[in-house]
Amino acid sequence: MDAHSTAHEHGHPTPGTYAKIGLFLFILTALEVGLYEGTYGDHAGALGASLQPFFVPLLLALSAVKFALVAMYYMHLKNDSKLFSGVFVFPIIIAAVIIVGLVILQAYHWAFSTGG
Amino acid sequence: MSDSAHTLATSTGLDSRKLAIWTFIGSECLFFASLISNYLVQKPRSLVGPFAHEAWTDPASGQVFEPIIEIPLVTVGTALLLFSSLFIVLALNGAQRGNRKQLLGWLGATLACGIFFVGMQVYEFNHFVHKGLTLQQNLFGASFYVLTGFHGTHVTIGVIWLLTMFVLALRRQLPPERAVNLEIAALYWHFVDVVWIIIFPVVYLIK
Which pLDDT band, with edges at 50, 70 and 90, does A116 fall under? Predict the structure, then answer.
């Protein structure tokens, strides 16, 4: 057990790497809020209107990158046992299917009930 | 188990406690998926305001309700929760290397961020209630409070858990061979953070 733990600890990032990832996460969050302000803010203008079709996909992509960075580096999934990754990722796939499935079903229900 | 430093050999070769927390986190993913789905499905079905991003005028009284969501405060809370994830890995690094000063300093910073986040949410809920959004007002209010309230409860539990770790560290009862206890608490804390990474855009940014 000790040898196993030590082996894992050797694979862990350094405090400098953690800090760089922290800074990157902060920048991504600032980008998310900036994207919101640029699209729907008081001074959005024509650029905001052109950004609207891409707003949700871009926002979800930024969130996915942040999620992956925290899971891989801060939660150590990148260097830890693949079993832990499996126990975490499998429910996430089911969760994503549930969310997307329910939203699509709701959209269909809404379209039929309003005759759209 | 009387001494957490001595774990039994397992067929996987992995620490059972870490496998247990990962399994718990996996189940929590499904829990929050149901709450996020509920929010996304119920929010557009609200018949009366106030709403998240649009103003609403009550036809009966003529009272105008401003949009509920306010981005600046929650952005600060989000940034602090993200930084708390950085702080706790630095605290864990200190615990694993036997650097007590590093452990206590970063763990204290993590706790401060967590307490600020909970305080922000209490303020936000209070503010929203005064703006007319209660749990019973509409489907947006019900699903919003249930989703963010359960997340806030998780943060509060995390703060209490980390506070116990802080006290243990103060009493010199968190030596490097027991750092896995902090690692397990940190995994829970990171999970609370990644859930907020999803909730923040879904609830606050997407119209």
Answer: low
Does residue A24 belong to the interface with chain B, where contact is any CB pair within 8 Å? no
B34: tokens are: 């149901």
Q: Which helix (H) or strand (E) holds A76?
A: none
Question: Among B16, B32, B29, B8, which Cα is nearest to B184's?
Answer: B16
Does the pTM surpass 0.80? The reply is: yes
CB contact under 8 A, B22 and A84: yes
Helix (H, G, I), strand (E, B) or coil at A43: coil
Least confident of A30-44, A64-78, B133-147: A30-44
State which residue of chain A sits closest to B74, comparing Cα positions.
Answer: A33
Preceding amide of B176 cis, omega within 30: no
ipTM of the assembly?
0.90
Residues of chain A with Cβ-Cβ distance to B201 below 8 Å are 32, 59-60, 62-63
The alpha helices in A1-116, defined as continuous H runs, are: 2-11, 15-40, 45-69, 82-113
